[in-house]
Amino acid sequence: MPDLISVQDFISQTQEDLSSPTTSSFTSHMGKCRNTVCSLEEDLDSDRTVLQKMRKAVKAEHTTGQDLISHLEAHIAALEKFSGNYHNSGDEKLSEAFTTFASFSQELLEAIKSLLLSLYHNIRFSLDSLVKGDFKGDFKKPFEKAWKDYESKLAKIEKEKRELAKQYGMVRTEVAGGEIAEEMEKERRMFQLHMCEYLIKVNELKTKKGVDLLQNNIKHCNSQFNFFQKCLKATEKHKQFIEKLTPELQSMKSKQEEEKKQLRSLRDQLKAALQLEPREQNSVRKPVRYSMHQLQGNKQYGTERSGNLLKKSDGLRKVWQKRKCTVRNGYLTISHSTLNRLPVKLNLLTCQVKPNADDKKCFDLISHNRTYHFLAEDEQECNIWISVLSNSKEEALNVAFKQAHDKDGYNMENLTGAIIEEIKHMPGNNMCCDCSTPDPAWLSINLGILICIECSGIHRELGVHHSRIQSLALDKLATSELLLAKNIGNSRFNDIVEANLPNSSSKPTKDSAMTHRKHFIISKYVDRKYVIPRIMRSPVAKLKNLENAVKAKDIFILLQGYAEKMNLSEPVLEFSQEPRETLLHLAVLLSDRTSLHIVDFLVQNSGSLLKQTSRGNTPLHYCSLHNKPECIKLLLRAKANITITNEAGETALDIASLLNHTTCKDLLLQAENNQFNMRAHVEYDWQPGQEEMFESDDELDEKPCVMKKDRFHRPQSCYNLPGPASQPWKNPADFFRGTGPASQDKCHDLYATPHASRSAETASPPTYTSSGPPLPPRNAPRAPSFPPPLPPTSNSAYPVDTTKRAMPPPLTIRHKRTSSEPLPSTPLNHGPSDDSRSFSLPRRCSQEGASPRSLSSQPSELSEDSWQQAASEGMKIPSEPNQNSRENHRTSSRSSESSDDIPPPLPKRGHMNTSFLHRVRALYDCQADHEDELTFVAGEIIIVEGQEDSNWWHGRIEGYPYRKGVFPVSFVYILPE
């Protein structure tokens, strides 16, 4: 803190300097004087700011009081006039009462006037005098000028003294104050004078803003005491009148009630005499118009405009920036200076246009979260923009009120259009599902595929029990008709239905004849010749897999069962509520906003609409019992029978009415009255892709970047391997084909629905396993590695004795790449059972552009010859791990799981020399769990491009450079150069 000088010290030092200038030490205190003035000026600035706010508040208080007085005067005048009306009609009691209330309000009004007068004279006037008078101006300016004059004169004299000493051969560094006291006396006296005047002004301000202001507050406080005393006196006087008036008013009200009762009785008698029936009088009401009471624009300028405006930024630098602005359809679009950023789009219905009172070329646009300041070229241009904005806002408001009843339909139309656009961009939907004609425009609703117009005609000939065809462009589709198309698509459908296609030449092209198309389509959809059976042959196991697919919300397992011509209407093995439940009953029971496509598939393809449980409940009954209105829409669209009764004699409508499920009841009533809309919209978690638009434009560079979602929280594709005794190998070749019970590849990352839960809440999904060795963790503590299983000695298709060969150890397989990902629990299996086996869906490698997400893989087929060939090329086959290594693996996995809560960052992959490039062959199928991982099938050749760590390499599929990513080293072997 700088040294300061008090007022008393300044007086004493100045008097000493006046009496003896040569011996005075005042010059050494001049710096303290200047510091004191600066400190006092800062305090005065702070006081000035507070006083300005206080003055503004008192001014508003006084203005509000004046408004109150004017309203009270109007109220009193109305009471007096009302009293006069009663006096003229001869009702003296009511006239006197209203006159008394007017007198009481007048007494309160006089007290309020007195209080406001005191507020004006004692508080507002004092604050106005301080802010506009005493505090106005720069008090320090004369003092600063005197200080600069003194400094410049002192520097000049010191320079002359040094020059004089230099002439005599002397060196002089300092000049004593006594030597120049007489020469600097005038400047010093001027400095002292302005310092004294400044201190006098500060003293006056302290008195006015302190003592005087408090005294005025005391005067106003006394006026407030008088105000409350007057009000209390008037209230006590008026209270006596009120106590006397209350019983008289009760008596008058009783008389009026009696008169009203007599008049009503007379009215009823008159109506009966005239035999008039009461009827409603329907008057034509004029439409209510909403008045904004806001700025009205000049209509001649219209509602649309485009041009450039200057916009003030909201960042730290308040600069005017040129922006292109467009007003159209009730929106203002503000472009950015760079083309790679989306423009800001403001809805004018939520904005207010306000002209700037200070600058006629400026106007403000106040939105819900910020205020935009615009500057036009001139005043006329500004008025045009304000008018156009106001007119566009008014037009949008009128359209919104006029078409309010069409709002829901308009929104649904937009949603349907967005869903159709997403469906068109799904893998394989850019060409016909049957003949690969580009840009198909016809949809098979019950299969979820897109086909061309030529193939659609053949589909119609097959009948609606095979394919229900609608046009994407000509028909007005509802969201309920897009459920399967949103969740299946051409690529995934053909991966199942065309898995056994002999060759590509057998499939028709866009130039194929209609006979060829028809033969292929009948073979594909009616005969289903090209489907590879993937579900176990045991009927019990088949039904169990379908039941688990419904619980796991897996549409592609159901599609596989449908393609294999399985009976989807059979009762499930483990019913949830009632015996003889079908898959459709179970799907309805478990349905939510993410699983309606499962219900829709079974409704259209299972033939279960009329199936009843042991209690006679159909799927429609289940919808009413469990309040599933969206499922009711799907069932009614398929023309489900609403008249079927259960064993209690209740229809679905009776149950909905009994349980007070209003929405279900309304839908069933509509169907009963033939009023149900077959193109119904359903509430489904569509999650259409949308880009975020920024409301603010100029400060984006100052905002922190939004981090992407952590990829380590994504669901995994590999789960648990069963124990060696749980599912014996029926066929040694199955171990390498991936079709055996312990080598089932989980394809749900490829085939799963967009929103299917990875855990079935109440039921256990099918057990999916991996056919490869356990994947090493990426950037985590290394656990003991497990080698792949031994190859078989024969490729026999018959069962072998499982006791004569080494069984693969029970491993907890998990595609674990970081130490933060938890390991899944391993279910305990207690014995072999064909019924508990799962199946693997067909996988194919698309030749027209595959990616880790869209690639579907086929079962690996490694024969004995290929293993012998690999062994001859130098591939080492590791031996089976012992029990101790398995225990060490479990311990290491548990320790790595709990070591860190936050996964370490992945190291950057460095570019490797071309000399490091190797060709390796895949030993097993591998399904990617993360975006940067590689999906491949056994037998594919991979070009190694880099090494992420000792367990993970980076490479690409030979011949498919766009299929690249990291892969585990243990899944491949190096080919000789």
Automatic annotation (TrEMBL):
Cellular component GO terms, alphabetical: cytoplasm; membrane
Domain PH: 302-394
ANK repeats: 615-647
Residues forming coiled coils: 147-174, 249-276
Cited CDD domains: ArfGap_ASAP (cd08834), PH_ASAP (cd13251), SH3_ASAP (cd11821)
Biased segments, Polar residues type: 759-772, 853-871
Cited InterPro entries: AH/BAR_dom_sf, Ankyrin_rpt, Ankyrin_rpt-contain_sf, ARFGAP/RecO, ArfGAP_dom, ArfGAP_dom_sf, ASAP, ASAP1-like_SH3
Gene3D superfamilies: 1.25.40.950, Ankyrin repeat-containing domain, Arf GTPase activating protein, Arfaptin homology (AH) domain/BAR domain, Pleckstrin-homology domain (PH domain)/Phosphotyrosine-binding domain (PTB), SH3 Domains
SH3 domain span: 915-977
Primary site of residence: cytoplasm
Protein name in the entry: Uncharacterized protein
